[in-house]
UniProtKB/TrEMBL annotation, chains A, B, C:
Belongs to the UPF0047 family. The lineage of its organism: Bacteria, Pseudomonadati, Verrucomicrobiota, Opitutia, Opitutales. It comes from Horticoccus luteus. Pfam families: YjbQ (PF01894). NCBIfam families: TIGR00149_YjbQ. Gene3D superfamilies: YjbQ-like (2.60.120.460). This is Secondary thiamine-phosphate synthase enzyme YjbQ.
Length: 139, 139, 139
């Protein structure tokens, strides 16, 4: 058993889902490990991770739209608004999804389903430079 | 430290929660490992995993009913409807819950709470044959 | 590679977020391990774990308030009410967040973001004594 760890960055030019499956698979390949778990971690509180359908862009648009309707920016109940109207909705959308996702791998390949991708979900409207940590545990 | 990995299948005859705690515990027993983490992964985008109260069936029915009201099938905003009205709600319910759950174990036993079970949540109405991957990391 | 595991308890005097970052960091230090993954697990079905902004208390109050409005206690649809009106909402809030959170570490330090803390979220109104399991996998 061994540990491999790498940090990647991704610039997000807009709110919404940004696929990072290839970056994660690339770090797994670099680890040289054959079987175990890859953990992806997002050290931010206004973006998050989610597994999602990766074939039809309309599925991602519908997911983003539904979350926008569930957590409207103009909620008069919010007190934490110092960074603008998308500040508190971003934290809530992060809490409803994940800061970490773990994916098993075998024969050096992620055991993802055919239609399954790993996405960094930017919840802020303005461009950000985001980091994620890929940790591979296995043999 | 060692890795053990197994793939299981479960036929889901209806939408809702299907307990898989025994299958996961069975794979842990087969691993022969004593202490570490069991990770369960669901390689689908229209079903998911959730930890839930496993004693009173009404708690599971209330959870299913609440999610059905939160994400109604007949939402006119949805664009991704090729596979029917339960297509997009399934992806949303998956994103709101988990594709992976990790449970610690000690002395070869899952450290679950008294009322805690691991459930595969089928979000589609029609029967499906679902897969889940159990990975045990430990010693 | 090695495994370290410890169980901690926390008394919750009120519903809401209770930060446990220091306890988790303390167990990581006790493990003596340098690089890998820390997994925190909550063996309860009416409280949960969440990563959240740890600087401004208003962000946590807004998150709690938003969840209370999303899952009102007085929902006449609920059948599972034996333990009171906050019984079923607690299970739902648990399902919407996490029973387990995993955080990578390097050089013996959690790779948390600047504003990121680990919180035990008590969903019941009355005081409870809660347990969480910290498992460290690494080298």
């Amino acid at each position: 058993m061994a540990v491999f760890q790498a940090t990647r960055t991704r610039s997000t030019h807009r709110a919404g889902l940004h696929e990072i499956t290839e970056e994660v698979a690339g770090e797994l390949a670099r680890s040289g490990l054959s079987q175990g778990i890859v953990q992806v971690f997002c050290p931010h509180t206004s973006c998050s991770l989610v597994m999602m359908e990766n074939a039809d862009p309309s599925a991602r648009r519908d997911l983003e739209g539904w979350f926008d309707r569930l957590v409207p920016a103009a909620d008069p109940n919010f007190e934490h608004t110092a960074e603008g109207p998308d500040d508190m909705p971003s934290h809530i959308k992060m809490a409803l999804t994940r800061s970490g996702e773990s994916i098993p791998f075998c024969d050096g390949k992620l055991l993802l389903g055919t239609w399954q991708g790993i996405f960094l979900w930017e919840h802020r409207r303005h461009p950000h430079r985001r980091t994620f940590v890929v940790t591979v545990l296995g043999e």
